[in-house]
Amino acid sequence: MKRKIIQTSDGSTTIQIEDWDECYHSKHGAIQEAKHVFIKNGLALFTAQKVSILEIGFGTGLNAFITFLEAKKRNQTITYVGVEAYPVSVEELKEMNYVQELEALEYTPVFEKMHQVKWEQSHLMDNDFCFTKRQQFFEAIDDVAKYDLIYFDAFGYRVQPELWSTAIFQKMFTALKNNGVLVTYAARGVVKRSMIEVGFTVEKLAGPPGKREMLRATKLIP
Question: Is the whole-model pTM more than 0.90?
């Protein structure tokens, strides 16, 4: 499918799949969306020093890189696993401007390393950020009670409804520890119902710029 690099409303870039009219990040602001959905309404909930995160849709690496920067500010130790079935090309990554837009030039080697390291292996980005990429279809995820937080950043329901199924959310529920949290930019009723069906407690929250609502799901087992 034809792809192109576009600039979003906050100045940061993303990849647009033209055939689907679908982007890796919000056209209204890639960085703004990541910070609002995954940091403000996800990572910020955790005050513990050690947090384990699973990202569904590693893609451009934006969410992982922002999490790295935020963890340094918060003095947190992060174990981060990013799952991606179809890795972004080297040429596309060269056009991503996240390091510049986040004013994080000193960490350029970290962003580059996230994309250069071998898949299926753990790597230290620094002493407090352990990073793993898994090239894997979401249907194959079989982790059990391993994560505190899931960033669910798959392509939208409109173009890939199978990624938002009850079966997928059952895998997410199983992968989380008790009291674990899943956050996503999505807010469709069908997505919320699938989350509830597998046992999540779900709340609608104010969405990022350009989107009215988002969802946060918590695994609460008495």
Answer: yes
